[in-house]
Amino acid sequence: MGGEQSPRAGAWATLLTAGKYLFFGGTAFALDLTLLSVLISTLGCPAWFSAAVAFAVSTVFAFFTQMRYTFRSNASTRGAMVRYGILLAANMVFTAAVVDRFDSWWDAYVQGKIFSTGITTLWNYFIMKHWVFPRREEGSGRRRRPRP
């Protein structure tokens, strides 16, 4: 029957999507770090400015690659931007709180950053897939529902 997927094919599709999510997220991080380094070390820009520019560029890159290539969302770009911004703000608050707690409790801010990055990476996959970049059925504004 058309449109149905075997459990094995569904599992492979999920693994492929997760792999793309990690690839594009890792590429965004590498872009952020590379641009930060070039702006500071090569162009002599201040660290605060370089960090802001590198973060902004990598965030835009991550948004569009995750929307178009990872999750193949056909939802409204404007709506996805709003949802992505909300998720980004929540991640920033969570990360700041975790890093602060790790630093004050154990003098371990680096471990706090690593821990918070792992947690946000995990939950972001599911939030992006189902809320930020949902797939919509062609010709309707409704989300595609999985078939039993």
Automatic annotation (TrEMBL):
Extract the InterPro entries matched here: GtrA_CellWall_Glycosyl (IPR051401), GtrA_DPMS_TM (IPR007267)
Any idea where this protein resides?
Membrane
A cellular component annotation (GO) from this entry: plasma membrane
This protein's UniProt keywords: Membrane, Transmembrane, Transmembrane helix
A Pfam family annotated for this UniProt entry: GtrA_DPMS_TM
Which terms under GO biological process does the entry name? polysaccharide biosynthetic process
Chief location category: membrane
**Domain annotation GtrA/DPMS transmembrane: ranges:** 20-133
Q: How does it sit in the membrane?
A: Multi-pass membrane protein
Q: Where are the transmembrane segments?
A: 21-40, 46-64, 84-102, 108-127
**Which PANTHER family did the record assign?**
PROPHAGE BACTOPRENOL-LINKED GLUCOSE TRANSLOCASE HOMOLOG
Family stated for the protein in its record: Belongs to the GtrA family.
What protein am I looking at? GtrA/DPMS transmembrane domain-containing protein
Organism lineage string: Bacteria, Bacillati, Actinomycetota, Actinomycetes, Actinomycetales
